[in-house]
Amino acid sequence: MLENFTDRCTYVYVATDAIDREAVAPYDTRPGPRSGFTASELLAVSLVAELVGLDAEPRCPAYPRRNHPTLFPRLPERSRYNRHRRHLAEVTNRLRGAIMARLWRVLEAAGADLCAIDSVPVPAAGFPPARHAHRWYGEAAYGRVAAKRQTIHGFKLHLLISQCGLLLDFARVAANAADGTLAEQLRIDKVGLTVPGDKGDLNGPLHQLLAARNALTVLTPRRRNRREQLPEALTRAINHARQIIETVNSQPVDQFALQRNRAESVGGRATRIHAKLAAHTFGLSRNYLAGRPLRALMDLALI
């Protein structure tokens, strides 16, 4: 068991360093000398901070420096730490992908192949009016969130997530983009999945292409004005599956504060999203290896 902050940091660092050497380091072609504070150390601090809720920039490097100075003796000051963290945003996403691939091979073999795409609104600036909106020109936009009956200025995060809670893929678009915009992109490299969708996913040609090319089954309920309707039992099963997955999808939003914006630029926002999703995936992997329920991530949030 990882009963304290020191054990948790040590475990995350060892696991992160092993994956970094295998999946990231061979492709690292950055010029110049390397920092004494390695990328594995920075990724470990970033992931642990997200797991325990220290996601604010002042608190993230300050807590281990003040309370556990021997863990990361070369931890840089805050501005340098955040700059280095932003430079490693794509490395963080590669790390999440490597952890996800290892865990998904095991879960898929056990029959956990039911997935769904769900969107999460991610505000970028306050509204109304959108303060500091000029920082997000060309990226963020005003969009309507039908589920909450509100308008936001920011993005939508489309998540392809499994029934057990594992995030397989994600994509960020402006808030005014339609929900089905990235449906093909999120499914294009997935094979043999069953994906229950909602009425916004209705796209006959795309579903036929995915079925023929990827053996991927997309099940969507029909609108009431459609002449061809699905059997009532199948419609109830699709709605039930989506309710389960939408409940699972709420964990990254609630526990990891995915919708809270502490960034002031697009790069900073992307860095935080990558770190939160990587920490969520790492927590699932840790619970699986420990024989615990996958989504019992609150037990890892204790300092």
Compact summary:
With 303 residues, the chain is of the alpha+beta class. Helix content is 45%, strand content 14%.
Average pLDDT over all residues:
81
CATH topology-level name of the domain at 111-260: Nucleotidyltransferase, domain 5
- What percent strand? 5-15%
Q: Tally the beta strands.
A: 6
Radius of gyration: 20 Å
Q: How many strands, which pairing sense, and closed or not: the largest β-sheet?
A: 4 strands, antiparallel
* Overall 3D shape: globular
Task: Supply database-style keywords.
Nucleotidyltransferase, domain 5; two-stranded parallel sheet; single chain; 4-stranded antiparallel beta sheet; 6 strands; alpha+beta; globular; 14% strand
Tell me about this structure:
Helix content is 45%, strand content 14%. The chain is α+β, with helices and mostly antiparallel strands and 303 residues long. The protein has a domain at 111-260: 2-Layer Sandwich (Nucleotidyltransferase, domain 5). The strands form 2 sheets. Strands 1, 2, 3 and 4 form a 4-stranded antiparallel β-sheet that branches. Strands 5-6 form a two-stranded parallel ribbon. The longest helix is centred in the last third of the chain and has 24 residues, at 266-289. The radius of gyration is 20 Å and the shape is globular. It starts with a helix and ends in a 14-residue tail after the last helix.
